[in-house]
Amino acid sequence: MKLGLSRANLASPTPIQELAIPALLSSNSVAFAAATGSGKTLAYLLPLMQKLKGEELLMGSSASSLSPASSRKVKRPRAVVMAPTRELAAQILSVLKELSHTCKLSSVGIIGGDDMGKQRRALDKCVDIVVGTPGRILKHRDDGNVFLGSVRTFVIDETDTMLEQGFQGDIAELLHPCLYASRGDQEGGVCRESAPQVVLTTATMTQAVRRLLNGEESNKQMKARSRGDNKEEGGGPTIVLPATMRVLEAA
């Protein structure tokens, strides 16, 4: 990883990296805003990669029969990064591959518009990190090409754009089964003990993002159900974030 940083001419952290990286290494679910070009992608990729490698080393030392690769399984990524556009997903994947080459973490792009068969074959191998668009990842999950029960970190990048483009329902369908054991837990934002870390980034703190972070949309749906109105508002399920999510505010 150090070699990858050296190749990218990255010697010192940006302000958002100084703020976000320690918080993300603590395993807390975290949301933060960072403008384009501020180093946001590395702010979540670096701690994500460090945690995955740390997990491998821990498993490798816990029993003599376990190797560092024992935490890796076919069709079961350990991290998922979701982006709203093909271009951004491809950019994130490129940065990730540059950084992860020397530390032996594998990644694959599951991006809408690309060949499904090729993606399916890539998922048939041991993959550490999936980077893709929500709809395509959901399609592969529903087709049985990828299982998300081993995911330790979910990243929702450019959340402001995700909400503007209507990806909220797809993200909720991917995220909620991994976070919550029951509808009651989901409504309260109470995660299961083994729930993955959630990382939410946004370029701007729009009103929609603030409502999401404040739980306003999920509260609206809860009230609708209590009235006996089973029709989902807003065109689909609303993302319910962990109640313990920490929102970072840059100074």
Any overview of this molecule?
This is Helicase ATP-binding domain-containing protein. The protein has helices spanning 2-7, 15-25, 40-62, 86-100, 116-123, 134-142, 159-164, 168-179, 183-188, 207-214, 216-226; strands at residues 30-33, 79-82, 107-110, 129-132, 153-156, 197-202, 246-248. The chain has 251 residues and is of the alpha/beta class. The protein has a domain at 2-54 and 71-165 and 194-210: 3-Layer(aba) Sandwich (Rossmann fold). Helix 3 packs across helix 4. The chain is globular and about 40 Å long.
Secondary-structure map with pairings?
Layout lengths: L1 H6 L7 H11 L4 E4 L6 H23 L16 E4 L3 H15 L6 E4 L5 H8 L5 E4 L1 H9 L10 E4 L2 H6 L3 H12 L3 H6 L8 E6 L4 H8 L1 H11 L19 E3 L3
Parallel strand pairs: 1-6, 1-7, 2-4, 2-5, 3-4, 5-6
Helix pairs in contact: 2-3, 3-4, 6-8
InterPro entries: DEAD/DEAH_box_helicase_dom, DEAD/DEAH_RhlB, Helicase_ATP-bd, P-loop_NTPase
Protein name: Helicase ATP-binding domain-containing protein
Pfam family, one: DEAD
Q: Approximately what portion of the residues adopt beta-strand conformation?
A: 5-15%
- Give the mean pLDDT: 86
Strand order of the largest sheet: 3-4-2-5-6-1-7
What's the helical proportion of residues? 40-55%
CATH homologous superfamily assignment of the domain at 2-54 and 71-165 and 194-210 = P-loop containing nucleotide triphosphate hydrolases
Shape: globular
Q: Which structural class do you get from the secondary structure elements?
A: alpha/beta
Q: What order do the SSEs take from the amino end to the carboxyl end, as H and E?
A: HHEHEHEHEHEHHHEHHE
Tell me the total number of β-strands: 7
Strand count, sense and barrel status of the largest sheet are:
7 strands, parallel
For this entry, what is the oligomeric state of its chains?
single chain
Distance between the termini: 29 Å
What is Rg? 18 Å
Classified by CATH, the class of the domain at 2-54 and 71-165 and 194-210 is Alpha Beta
Low-confidence stretches: 61-69, 223-227, 231-235
CATH topological fold name of the domain at 2-54 and 71-165 and 194-210: Rossmann fold
CATH architecture of the domain at 2-54 and 71-165 and 194-210: 3-Layer(aba) Sandwich
Counting DSSP H or I runs of 4 or more residues, the number of helices is: 11
GO molecular function: ATP binding; helicase activity; hydrolase activity; nucleic acid binding
InterPro entries: DEAD/DEAH_box_helicase_dom, DEAD/DEAH_RhlB, Helicase_ATP-bd, P-loop_NTPase
Organism: Triparma retinervis
Domain Helicase ATP-binding: 21-223
